[in-house]
Amino acid sequence: MTIEHSMRSLAREVFLHALAEANIEKAFERHVDYQRGVLRVGGDLYDLNTCARVLVVSFGKAGHRMAEILARQTGPALGGIIADPNQHAYQLPGYRYFQGGHPQPNEESVRAAEAILKSLNGLNQQSLAIFLISGGGSAAVEKPADPEISIADLIATYRTLVLSGAPIAQINAVRKHLSATKGGRMAQAAGGARQVSVLVSDVPENALDSLSSGPTMPDSSTIDDCYRIVQEYGMLRDFPVSVREIFERHALDETPKQNDPAFAQSRWWKILSNETAENAGAAAAAKQGFAVEIDHSCDDWDFAKAADYLLERLRALKNGVSKACIVSGGEVTVKVPANSGMGGRNQHFAAYCAPKIAGENIAVLSAGTDGIDGNSPAAGAVADGTTLQRAREAGVDLAAELRAFNSYAAFERLGDTIQTGPTGNNVRDLRILFAY
Known about the structure:
With 436 residues, this protein is an alpha/beta fold. Helix content is 38%, strand content 18%.
């Protein structure tokens, strides 16, 4: 086995180890417990025997998975609503299921939102709402705040936001202010009930109210932020008429803030995040004898800027050691044209790196912990110092595929895609860079 092939294989192994450790079941074992009718979430205790009603609302890419693991602890006593974009072989008893869309909402997303809001409206101060929230919930549960916005307009708006190149926190700021469920509005609907949110985060560590667009948390963004973001990224011309008119009339309604009564009895516990995957990847690389640095300072940067920065950091680290590794969590941004091919930001990142590392003993892996990269069936890809030459020998013009945003075809031809299938989890992306 060549050094290059060994490095690509090792990068895969480290990523898969990080994926296994950033596991929802392990996170529940650490942070959630149920004994004799008392539920512990983090440092809080909830005696379910004293609650007039307990409603579980679980949504996002881990919607089914989180509810399933909770049910293992509590038994069949609890029930509620699950909105998950993935299909599952079976459904948990006591739950209504909705297969909401991703990355754009669909009709089921709207039905899920309506069902959730109706159920929350039936709670009172003696009730407990347990929210299990994971990445992907922004699209899986959605209802426009303005009834003039149709589902088709909603989908078009999401597409414009996702393709704008704006960081996820800014995308979610706009989503929140157009939604009847986001930016704390789900908490408002709960009628003064006690609320606890269990969070599997796919957002920056300091921006938890961006997770699924913060449906149960006070919103730190404002309507002024939204008007500025839409102008900065030139979104207005691409919005459908119903949404464009709201912005032109400055008719957005403000979302609830920290002092809103809806949050008087609310608690939020992050049990799993990108940090978990970063630490697990770093530990696995260190076990293989690498000098490791964790660097997520390029979170939400443009993909090219992030790649150049991380490669520079890797080479600098390699100057003093025989084997160097940089582990970088978070997400990079890519502005995708309407006529793009098949791929995603992770494969695009790896394809951009390939000519930058040609001929060097460097490997770069970039993949999503949800197992899905853009519109492709891959989680990501791995490139090394031989990728460019191997592509030429295979008749693949990597530069052309990069320009066409068609990186999946190139990496699949080379056997260098990362295939995990949907993981039922999402704690953002992971980039692993090795240098010998």
